[in-house]
Amino acid sequence: MFYSIKGNLIHTEPGFAVVECGGVGFKCLTTLSTQRALPKIGEQVTLYTHLNVREDALDLFGFATMSELNCFKMLTGVSGVGPKVGLAILSELAPEQVAMAVATGDSKTLTRASGVGAKLAQRITLELKDKVKGMQTSGEAFTPTGIISAASNAGAAVNALTVLGYSPSDAAAVVARFDSSLPVEELIRQSLKAMANGLK
Question: DSSP 3-state assignment of 200?
């Protein structure tokens, strides 16, 4: 329903920020990462949003980056992962770290987040990894500049970006712009930055 909200930041508390837009103050539940990226009170801010509808409440979630929002949606799509857990994970880990953990099956990294035990972390990595496998048709990705092998750093970066909700073809096209010998996390970081700047 809401794609983003832009207005003046009028209040912050741990866990949420209030953005005034058209005379209305919107309370946006946020991660610690987004809160660290917020400007000073009174300055203009844009948050990418997700509206969660429940029987007894409408909760608006706000994120500093589109990749954080995509990661939140992906996490809360896993059975047993509610918005509170999604925020906890993204308060502890950057989207590229979550994607990397899922792509490599490293469930232990996810347990660093408050409220995420070993069983839930394993469920997250398994379910999201299965989603990625379902989206891939082969062990290779084709790009305008050639083929990316799934076994390479670039291939691992493409898998991780797919976890964040990007299509394999879009992810492969962006990853192919960078030096494939870079560490996987750096490839993911640079690709997310490029995508945020519209270089698809």
Answer: coil
Assign 137 a pLDDT band (cuts: 50, 70, 90): very low
pTM for this one? 0.73
Longest distance between any two alpha carbons in the chain, whole Å? 52
Instruction: Burial-class residue 196 by CB neighbours within 10 Å (0-12, 13-18, 19+).
Output: exposed
Highest mean pLDDT among 85-89, 140-144, 163-167: 85-89
Residue 27: beta bridge partners? 18
Chain position carrying tokens 């799934």: 150
* The token pair that represents 68 in the structure block: 């954080």
Give the residue-averaged pLDDT of 129-149: 47
Do 61 and 1 touch, CB atoms closer than 8 A?
no
| Single-letter amino acid code for the residue at 122 | Q
In 3D space, the residue among 188, 164, 157, 158 whose CA is nearest the CA of residue 71 turns out to be: 164
What is the model's pLDDT at position 142? 37
Predicted pLDDT at 185: 82
SS3 182: coil
The number of C-alpha atoms within 13 Å of 154 and in the hemisphere containing its C-beta is 22
Tokens encoding 24:
């209305």
Counted residue by residue, the chain has a size of 200
Name which of 32, 35, 59, 60 is nearest 45 in CA terms: 35
Pairing of strands 24-29, 58-63: parallel
